[in-house]
Write a structure and sequence with these properties.
150 residues; alpha/beta; 6 helices; 6-stranded parallel sheet
Amino acid sequence: MNESPQSITVLGAGTMGRGLAQVAAAGGYETCLYDVEAKVLQAAETGILQNLEKGVRLGKVTPESADLARGNLRVTSDLESAVSETDLVIEAVPESMELKTGVFAQVAELAPAEACFASNTSGLSITEMAAASGRPQQFAGMHFFNPVHQ
């Protein structure tokens, strides 16, 4: 990928994933938040919208920025639709190497060949995840502190 990403997919709608999705959407990226659990996904979307409203009330977020973020955010529990047209996949699933490597192997089959991958792990092997993805040259480790949006 030679250009900056235009679309970002965040895998995992827990605390970190929802924060990453909020920041990406507010940053102007088409953002898809994915989770296997519909209840978790619903709670994440509600939490993001509440954070944006609170940010506007407190004067930390402009109404225009909040509208931009809301317009850029999409949620889904369908992995293929989440990653099939994305530029960057950021994984934020629970800290289990087996889970993470399995997710990256699956996503590698569905995401565009030029898409880059990143893990938000706090301590697991990026090298092992990159190998599981089959695209180690397009893989990065990253870690945000909680809360991501502040």
